[in-house]
Design a protein that fits this description.
- The chain is α/β, with parallel strands linked by helices.
- The protein has two domains: 5-43 and 302-432, Lyase, Ornithine Decarboxylase, Chain A, domain 1, CATH 2.40.37; 45-301, TIM Barrel.
- It has helices at residues 29-36, 45-58, 77-85, 95-103, 120-128, 139-151, 190-199, 221-241, 267-285, 298-301, 335-339, 428-432, and strands at residues 15-16, 22-24, 27-28, 40-44, 65-70, 89-92, 111-113, 133-136, 156-163, 185-186, 204-210, 247-249, 291-294, 305-316, 322-326, 345-347, 357-362, 371-378, 386-390, 410-415, 418-423.
- Strands 4, 14, 15, 16, 17, 18, 19, 20 and 21 form a nine-stranded mixed β-sheet that branches. Strands 5-6-7-8-9-11-12-13 form an eight-stranded parallel barrel, surrounded by four helices. The chain has a three-stranded antiparallel β-sheet with strand order 1-2-3.
- A hairpin with an 8-residue loop joins strand 17 and strand 18 (371-378).
- Helix 5 crosses helix 6 and helix 8 packs parallel to helix 9.
- The longest helix is centred in the middle third of the chain and has 21 residues, at 221-241.
- Bound molecules: ligand LLP.
- Ligand LLP is lined by residues 70, 72-73, 91, 114, 174, 176, 212, 215-216, 251-254, 295-299, 335, 339, 395, 399.
């Protein structure tokens, strides 16, 4: 079976060029660092488009499939345009994501709104934009959505988010489908929810079920189990409520390769398992094939992104570690400190030098836990070297902060030698633009 982008640590266009520098998307990383300054997020357009095409190709044997990019992984106007251009819709979880996507002129029928505590204002905005689907997470939301939709004279098309009771072996913080989870209806609550929708909530139209079992998943059996549970529920709802639902959203979660020791299955393998599971379960329960929604986030955007840093100070602990500090860290990539995530890096201006020193890459933030990479072997580093950390496209910028009152970094899109800024670095003025000094303090 073919390999796919999520199985590679580096963007597909990564090369060493004639200046002996690393190049991505036809752009020399050392030049990019000079032109745009660091820290710098770089997104390779070809890698992003390739992975979208792989998803489409991998699922081409199942006609009724719809792809919704989980925009929480990285939501910017330019990225949204590219992913929409590849035929994907969007899974959103906030008014900010909704607004960004609507503003990029996307067909809002292809948007699904997820989340366990949507606000009234967010629901109103989503109804105003006429989005395609709401995934409803709990009883309070059923009632709220029904009420607001009624006020707008609209019928909201919904999926019920359920917790199928599957534990996948990923970090506890990114597991979502196990029974003790803050997300979704328990299986035992589905009947009550269906009855409410049928008998009382006349402004809601139930289309199907939704589950998402976790993120950075390497196992394949979990998808098999998830699909069987969902189709079994569809069959039960058909029998017990005389209601045939024909949509299933099976979430996202496919893992990527951050370091050599990661071994995620390919998109083709996952597609094979998902499609076979659906066919098997539908056969077993004598159910017509439903429309399947997939919500990948990380596996779409992670590999396309790298972050460039400039090397600064160094500290050798006597008889201990050598720390090399860079000009970014937990504010542009909080994942190592939040999830102990590991990353691979190379020196953009020394790609061929032997990796003779084991060092720890420290962030610049005033926090001992701000370590980007523990114990990585790299060539001897000097001040001014450009470090390229791979696989930072997903959940880096989207979880970035202004910690220590630093400016969030620039993002540049590269393709065939073009480098276009798609997010501007914040300015010092941006940092204070929402500050207010009460007049009584100025007396
Ligand atoms: N659908 C739902 C309902 C989700 O909650 C998520 C992610 C996705 C889809 C997309 O999952 P993906 O394909 O990206 O694995 N900040 C964490 C990841 C949190 C994921 C939250 N939900 C991290 O940096 O690892």
């Amino acid at each position: 079976m073919n390999n796919s982008v999520n199985q590679s640590i580096k963007p597909v266009t990564t090369k060493i060029n004639s200046s002996n520098h690393i190049e991505i998307g036809g752009c020399d990383l050392v030049n990019l660092a000079k032109e745009f300054e660091t820290p710098l997020y770089v997104i390779d357009e070809q890698t992003l488009r390739k992975v979208c095409k792989e998803y489409k190709q991998a699922f081409s044997l199942y006609e009724k499939v719809k792809f919704l990019y989980a925009s929480k992984a990285l939501c910017t106007s330019a990225i949204t345009k590219i992913i929409s251009d590849e035929g994907f819709g969007f899974d959103v979880v906030s008014d900010g994501e909704l607004y960004t996507i609507n503003n990029a002129d996307i067909n809002m029928e292809k948007v699904l709104f997820n989340g366990s505590n949507k606000t009234e204002a967010e629901i109103k905005l989503a109804l105003k934009y006429n989005i395609g689907r709401f995934s409803v997470d709990n009883f309070a939301e059923l009632s709220l959505l029904n009420e607001i939709a009624g006020n707008y004279n609209k019928q909201a098309k919904i999926l019920l988010r359920i917790t199928p009771g599957i534990e996948c072996h990923t970090h506890e913080y990114v597991q979502t489908g196990n029974l003790d989870s803050k997300f979704g209806f328990d299986l035992s609550q589905i009947d009550e929810a269906v009855n409410l929708i049928k008998d009382k909530y006349t402004n809601l139209s139930l289309k199907g079920l939704h589950a998402h079992i976790g993120s950075q998943i390497f196992e394949t059996q979990v998808y098999y189990d998830e699909i069987d549970i969902l189709i079994k529920e569809l069959d039960r709802i058909r029998r017990e409520h005389n209601l045939t639902l024909n949509e299933l959203n099976i979430g996202g979660g496919l893992g990527v390769k951050y370091t050599e020791s990661d071994n995620p299955p390919s998109i083709y393998k996952i597609a094979d398992i998902i499609v076979n599971s659906i066919k098997n379960s539908c056969k077993n329960y004598n159910y017509e094939y439903p429309t399947i929604y997939l919500e990948p986030g990380r596996s779409i955007i992670s590999t396309a992104g790298v972050t460039l840093y400039t090397v600064g100070s160094q500290k050798q602990v006597p008889n201990g570690k050598k720390y090399v500090a860079v000009d970014g860290g937990m504010a542009d990539n909080p994942r190592p400190s939040l999830y102990q995530s590991e990353y691979y890096a190379q020196v953009a201006n020394k790609p061929n030098q032997s990796c003779n020193e084991k060092i720890t890459v420290a962030g610049r933030y005033c926090e001992s836990g701000d370590i980007l990479i523990k114990d990585i072997k790299l060539p001897t580093l000097e001040k001014g070297d450009i470090l390229c950390v791979y696989n930072t496209g997903a959940y880096n910028y989207s979880m970035a902060s202004n910690y220590n009152r630093t400016k969030r970094a620039t993002m540049v899109l590269v393709n065939s030698g073009h480098s276009d800024m798609i997010i501007k670095r914040e300015s010092l003025n941006d940092l204070i633009k929402n500050d207010i000094i009460p007049s009584r303090l100025n007396k």
